[in-house]
Amino acid sequence: MDRNDRIVIMAGIIILIIALIGILYHEKTYESIATGEEKSTYRIEWTEYSDEILSQGYVGRDGWSGNYTIDEGSDAVISSIEFKIEWKDDLNFHGFILPWNWSDMIEASISIPEFSFSNSKSGYEEISMEAKGSTPEPKFVEAKNESEAFKSISIKSGAVNCKISLSITPKPRFFDKGNDFTIHISYHYYKPEIKQVS
């Protein structure tokens, strides 16, 4: 075998080695891309919960204000909040000697910036209001894993701040300085459950 033949054989071996390396690299790259593109179907469902905040206080002629934060976690969706303010007259002269109404009247103002909610009401012995948020619906998503599926949830409310202000018109004015009251804040919220279906 002369020198030229050996050169040709060596060149052939080198070309064969390069071709094998290229084939192996291509297969690994294809497997990596195929693995990265694999996605599963997940169903996002919502479970409803409810809770209540109970608070007591005293409102005088200077009024009263308070702030209540509802926080059930960053993944919670608060769907509705119901407010009920109750009180009994400390000094009740209603129907005593004179027939007109001696009951204390309280005015309540409630705002929830996260709900774009603001309302005021006045009444005797009880005031009720309700604020509505969003109610999530179940859906299917395509994702690589549960973490990615969770990130696809666009509706999240997190913490909600309820600002309440009270003012009172006590009667009879010269004897009655204010009144005790009780605030009931009942709220409903949802939390997601992610299940892989395929």
Question: Strand arrangement, largest sheet?
Answer: 6-3-9-1-7
Q: State the distance separating the first and last CA atoms.
A: 63 Å
Domain unit count:
1
Radius of gyration: 35 Å
Count of individual helical segments: 2
What is the C-level CATH assignment?
Mainly Beta
Largest sheet: 5 strands, antiparallel
Q: Shape from CA axes? A: rod-shaped
What's the rounded overall pLDDT mean?
82
As a percent range, the share of strand residues is over 45%
Structural class: alpha+beta
Which stretches are poorly predicted, pLDDT < 50 over at least 5 residues?
none
CATH topology: Jelly Rolls
Helix/strand order: HEEEEEEEHEE
Number of strands: 9
Shape-level CATH architecture? Sandwich
Describe this structure in words.
The protein has about 200 residues and is of the alpha+beta class. The protein has one domain: Jelly Rolls (Sandwich). It contains 2 helices and 9 strands. Strand 4 and strand 5 (about 115-125) form a beta hairpin. It starts with a helix and ends with a strand.
Please give the structural blueprint.
Elements: H1 3-37, E1 40-60, E2 64-70, E3 77-86, E4 105-112, E5 117-123, E6 126-132, E7 139-143, H2 146-151, E8 160-169, E9 178-196
Antiparallel strand pairs: 1-7, 1-9, 2-8, 3-6, 3-9, 4-5, 4-8
Give the key terms.
single chain; 198 residues; Jelly Rolls; 2 helices
How would you briefly describe this protein structure?
By secondary structure, the protein is an alpha+beta fold.
